[in-house]
Amino acid sequence: MRSIIIALLCLFGSTQLMAADLKKGKKINKTCALCHGAWGQGTAGAKSPRIAGMTTGFLVKILSEYRSKKRKNAGMLVTSGIHKMTDQHIEDIATYLAGIDLRNDPRFDVDHAKGDRAKGKKIFMSECKGCHRKNGYGKPKKGIPALAGQQTKYIINTIERFKARTRVHDDDPEDDLFDDMFPKREDMENLTAYLSTLDDVTEPRSATLPGGKTILDRGKPAAKDKNVEIVKAPTNEALPGASVSEITQTVARMELRKGISRDEAIVSMRNKAVELNMRLVGEQHVSKALEQRGEKTPYLAIFQFCNLSDAKAIVHNNPLYAAYMPCRIAMVEDTGGKTWLMMLNLDILVDNTLVSKDIVKTVIGVNQKMLEIMVAGTTGDL
């Protein structure tokens, strides 16, 4: 069995890269944060891998593959606007994410996975250590990213996709490396059980953003901290992806795709909500009600979704979140006749401070589900 990280995350060669604009990368990251968290930390589950700290070359490679549709993810395509990104956009966001260092910050430790860690360690030490180093953080200069800190279910999902040939390994469609690897699921679980311990705190410290800026503990005033970079990115340039409001940074929006009617979008959102166990607990057809009163107005409807367990956990952590429950998606017609779907971005609502790790994961999970509902409405899927 060759290097696990090469198998999991694909080999990539050195790439000739242009100078990156970190301020622009930080701005683009607002869209990435909708699913991956404000610091790219990812969360439990196969859909939100940790992207912070991955090498620039690897990030450029995978983003380019999504743009060319070599890799496919409908939700990411619509949310990130990757199909509209230029090479410079990709370089900017890749460099920004690569510069986020979460190592040894206990707030970002991944959850321990089930399995036999001792057996997993034997696999790692015999097959992985050579490329990924004993500490599991890879060799950035050689383009080998870290396994330490990566979300467990994402690693297992990637292995399974390689085995099923639904994801190409090492840019080689004929690569059969995984055909006989991990004959039992428990082998993968043992490996990931050990991998999940590699980012455990040894010398606790605060994580940093590109440029050595410290990610603050909750409650510390950013404006008074000399280590914090306050950046006001230019607002006159339209960047790809679901736009995030520059005023409050709490609203994400997507335009209905051409050819998709409002009724089709509504049906698709309802169906996707059922699939995701998000209850449609209310809807207000505002413009329709106003028209019945003789007031003509652009189209406006509001749809409210809720997962009761998630809502309970979030509000219990901080009652202020109750003001944002249930989660809403508004369907709005603008002055130009275009129809948009809009939602609150709960992850950025955390206001660049960390609540407890479990609640951060729940918030990102709610964001993901709401985004999936929006994507279904935008595209007419379902």
What does this protein look like?
The protein is α+β, with helices and mostly antiparallel strands. The protein has two domains: 4-209, Cytochrome c-like domain (Cytochrome Bc1 Complex, Chain D, domain 2, Orthogonal Bundle), CATH 1.10.760.10; 243-379, 2-Layer Sandwich (TATA-Binding Protein). The protein has helices at residues 4-9, 22-36, 56-67, 74-80, 87-98, 117-132, 152-163, 185-195, 262-275, 286-292, 308-317, 346-349, 357-379; strands at 208-209, 213-214, 243-244, 251-255, 279-284, 300-306, 327-333, 339-344. The chain has a six-stranded antiparallel β-sheet. It has a two-stranded antiparallel sheet with strand order 1-2.
Helix/strand order: HHHHHHHHEEEEHEHEHEEHH
Helix content: 25-40%
Strand content: 5-15%
CATH architecture of the largest domain: Orthogonal Bundle
Radius of gyration: 22 Å
Number of helices: 13
CATH class wording of the largest domain: Mainly Alpha
The CATH homologous superfamily of the largest domain is called Cytochrome c-like domain
CATH topology of the largest domain: the name is Cytochrome Bc1 Complex, Chain D, domain 2
Total domain count: 2
Distance between the termini: 41 Å
What is the secondary structure topology, with strand pairs?
Blueprint: H1 4-9, H2 22-36, H3 56-67, H4 74-80, H5 87-98, H6 117-132, H7 152-163, H8 185-195, E1 208-209, E2 213-214, E3 243-244, E4 251-255, H9 262-275, E5 279-284, H10 286-292, E6 300-306, H11 308-317, E7 327-333, E8 339-344, H12 346-349, H13 357-379
Antiparallel strand pairs: 1-2, 3-4, 4-8, 5-6, 6-7, 7-8
Helix pairs in contact: 2-5, 3-5, 4-13, 6-8, 7-8, 9-13, 11-13
